[in-house]
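Order emerges. As here.
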Amino acid sequence: MSTVGTVNASPPNVGTSTPSTDTAGDLSKNFMQMLLAQLRNQDPLNPMDSAAMTGQLAQLNMVSGINATNDLMRSVLDQIKESTQMQLSDMTGKYALVDSDSVQLMTAGEPVQFETSLSKAVDQLTLSVTDATGREVFNKKWDALPAGVVAFQWDGKAADGKAVPAGHYTIQAWSGQSAATGKVTLQASQLVLQAGLDSEGQIQLYLANGQQIGSDSVKKWLASL
C-alpha cells in the first residue's frame, strides 16, 4: 500500500481582482454629457463644426465598444473562475493514481491500488511495503508478467492477514531478483486532501502522503479503491 504523509504546506490563495465600477453605460453617459455641455456652452458666433462633432461621436462609439468588450471579457473570466472552482471542489476527496514511493493509509487496512508499466516481460515482480520504523509489513511476488501496464492491489493487510494500522508506509517494487538493479516506477492510489491554484493559475493537488503535484501528473482518477 502506498503511504501518504501529512501535508505541511498549504496551497497558495487564489487572488481575486476587483472589477472596475465604471460600466460601459456609465462611461458613454458621461461622454455624452460632456458633449452636450460643449454644445450648450459653445460660442454662437463660432459654433462647433460638424467634423469636430462627428469625430467626438466616433470617439464615443469607440469607447463604448471597448468597454462593451471589457464587460464581455469580465463575464467570460467570471464563468471560467466559477468552472475552475467547481473542478477544484470535485477533485478534493478523490483518489488519484500517481507516481509515488509512499502511501498514507487513512484507516487501518485501507486497500491501495498500484500500476506499473513494464518495458519488457519479466520473470518476477516483487512489491515490498515498510512502515515508518523501516519494518517490512508486506512482501509479495508475481511470476511471469508480460510487457505493458500491470495493475495490482495491496489489501492493507500484513503477512499474517491482520490489517495494518493507519499511517505512512514506504512502497518499493522491482523486477528480477534485485531491488538495486531492477527497480520499477510505481503509480499508487493517493487521496487528494486539497486542490488549489498556484501563482500561474495551474491546478495543484495536495496529497495525503505529503506530495504536491500538478493535476497533469495524475495518471488516472479512481472511482473507488
Remarks:
- DSSP finds two helices and eleven strands in the chain.
